[in-house]
Design goal:
Chain lengths: 176, 437
């Protein structure tokens, strides 16, 4: 399935490396972008493309926290729990999310929209508390801002409060 | 305020600067490449970088030009350059800004580095979470190809280079350069035993140089303005140039600040970052990312350079400075960091894999009021059995929060054990904080 649909893309990816196995992470990303997770069927398919055994693919998949082996909610909320964010409000943020969505880390809302995870440092330490939702970063969160973001996501599928190209602090002369 | 003239952050601080190729060229971008390609011999570029004193900005601080010079000159097969954009050290968020706001600065540095070590292929290994950064770099690479800065015959010099993006997928250890190589080869990111070093046996067993984003971003400036200029900035001879320090925690103005190396932590925390939030007293700070030992207010006049921090018993590391105010529980802080290290231990070496969990369990019981009198000696004994007994530096990193907080705040640990509770935190929100993996 994956191979037929993305034939050209896969050829292009393989062309970047002198050894086939190096294309493993890019192909796993391709599978996850397609289905939201990496199924065992996709792993077998990828193993075939790269002349690997399925266990060789599986052992790699299980090493990386971003690769989901099970389907998850449409929006994957990942809250940074490392010290720098914890100093400025990880616990509060988890509390606000719980108040709004009724879920704790590891849980998914009954409508299948939101899955909540705690993750380690996302390189956003000066702008905590923060979370990543799918591809986007949301930083300097307050309860009000969080609620707006979750409402935006539910209604529009995205939120304008996501961080753009990162610079912090923004120099005063640019802040006009 | 930060009164120092920025080098790496200069462009992006100009109003209207977008980081596009046109903006970068208008700001003098790609002039170093024009100056060097075909006009300065690759070996001379290496000499220039050696002379500048530039050292790696990722954490280890190895001299960049020396690293480049280790690539065997007579090697016949391919060789590789990798930009380490896996920025994952807790407390560090500078590379993200360099990539997203001025991507061509780093790319020009990569092309110069590739020319110096005569490679035809380079990769950018970027952490999987940086989706926006990866898109911005993809666009910048496409611009560079269209303008002839990348491809088969760069600026008509005959030098050829292709740069490819390679996304990680969530693993701190992949910032360690040999784990990064394993990861790039499509495997679990387990660090390799050294020697052999990547300079001779790196990616696909070929000679390889791995450099951090900020390190590479410095290279165009060094080529443009000369090694003497660079070596005059900072705290020569061992700490030349600027560093982008990432301030986090309880300061009024957290964020990225580029300063010449060698200013004091007092100036950084109290002047540049605006002082302590709510003007509370400072209790402790981590000077160089989660792997660096905690320091205390008595270290405020330590200079922010490689040697001064080593003398103070910590390290400059990745430049992540995390500031903690009075009232922050040091046992809680150490427990938080050990949860990080336990989660991120790759599992290859037994002392680190098992030790990080044991350390975490002991810290957790102390913090949660179940500590035992003998726990402190047990912690130290465990730390002693991890340090220096692992393939990579992760083992030394994971004990730093414990040995340093025990050194400076032993009475706090004892108060936890004596009182059978945390004196700072009324009741941990245990049901919201999950345990282990």
């Amino acid at each position: 399935m994956l191979i037929e649909k993305h034939k050209d893309k896969i050829t292009e990816i393989l062309g970047r490396y002198p050894e086939k196995r190096a294309a493993l992470l890019p192909l796993l990303w391709l599978a996850q972008e397609e289905h939201g997770h990496v199924s065992e069927a996709a792993m077998k398919e990828i193993a075939g493309v790269l002349d690997l055994t399925p266990p060789q693919v599986y052992e790699t998949v299980t090493f990386y926290t971003m690769l989901n082996r099970q389907p998850i909610g449409k929006f994957h909320i990942q809250v940074c729990r490392s010290l720098m964010c914890a100093l400025v409000g990880t616990e509060q943020l988890l509390g606000w999310i719980h108040a709004k969505l009724g879920i704790k880390p590891g849980q998914t809302t009954p409508d299948g929209l939101f899955t909540l995870s705690q993750v380690e440092c996302l390189a956003s330490c000066g702008t905590g508390p923060m979370m990543q939702v799918n591809d986007d970063y949301f930083e300097q969160l307050t309860q009000e801002k969080l609620n707006r973001i979750l409402d935006d996501l539910k209604r529009d599928g995205k939120s304008p409060l996501a961080t753009g190209p990162f610079m912090f602090p923004v120099p005063q002369h640019m802040n006009r | 305020m930060n009164k120092y003239e920025p080098i790496l952050l200069k462009n992006m601080m100009q109003p209207g600067y977008t980081g596009s190729l046109a903006d970068y060229e208008r700001a003098g971008g790609y002039q170093a490449l024009r100056k060097a390609l075909g006009k300065i011999a690759p070996a001379d570029i290496i000499e220039v970088v050696k002379k500048s004193g530039l050292r790696g900005r990722g954490g280890a601080g190895f001299p960049t030009g020396v690293k480049w010079s280790f690539i065997p000159k007579d090697h016949r097969g391919p060789r590789y350059l990798i930009c380490n954009a896996d920025e994952s050290e807790p407390g560090t968020f500078k590379d993200r800004q360099l990539m997203e706001r001025d991507p061509h600065q780093m790319i020009e540095g990569m092309i110069l580095a590739a020319y110096a070590i005569s490679t035809l292929i380079a990769y950018i290994y970027i952490r999987g979470e940086f989706v926006l950064g990866a898109k911005i770099l993809e666009n910048a690479l496409a611009e560079a190809y269209r303008a002839g800065y990348l491809g088969p015959n760069i600026l008509g010099s005959g030098f050829a280079l292709d740069i490819y993006m390679h996304r990680g997928a969530g693993a701190y250890i992949c910032g360690e350069e040999t784990a990064l190589l394993e990861s790039m080869e499509g495997k679990r990111g387990l660090p390799r035993t050294k020697p052999p070093f990547p300079a001779t046996h790196g990616l696909f067993h070929q000679p390889t140089v791995v450099n951090n984003v900020e390190t590479l971003a410095n290279v165009p400036h060094i080529v443009n303005r000369g090694p003497e200029w660079f070596a005059s900035i900072g705290h020569p001879p061992k700490s030349t140039g600027t560093r982008i320090f990432c301030l986090s925690g309880h300061v009024k103005r957290p964020g990225n600040y580029e300063v010449p190396m060698g200013i004091t932590f007092r100036e950084m925390i109290y002047e540049i970052a605006g002082g302590m939030r709510g003007d509370k007293p400072l209790k402790a700070f981590i000077p160089g990312g989660a792997s660096a030992a905690f320091l205390t207010p008595e270290h405020l006049d330590v200079k922010m350079d490689f040697d001064s921090l080593a003398q103070a018993g910590s390290m400059l590391g990745s430049g992540g400075v995390t500031v903690m105010e009075e009232g922050t529980c040091m046992v809680w802080a150490a427990e938080n960091l050990l949860q990080f290290f336990n989660h991120e231990s790759c599992g290859k070496c037994t002392p680190c894999r098992e030790g990080s969990l044991w350390l975490l369990q002991i810290l957790r019981r102390i913090e949660h009021g179940h500590g035992r009198q003998e726990d402190l000696d047990l912690l130290l004994r465990l730390c002693g059995n991890i340090a220096g007994r692992t393939v990579c530096a992760f083992g030394d990193a994971e004990i730093a929060p414990i040995t340093s907080t025990l050194q400076h705040f032993r009475d706090e640990y004892e108060a936890h054990i004596r009182g059978q509770r945390c004196p700072f935190r009324p009741q941990p929100v245990a049901d919201l904080i999950t345990v282990g993996h």
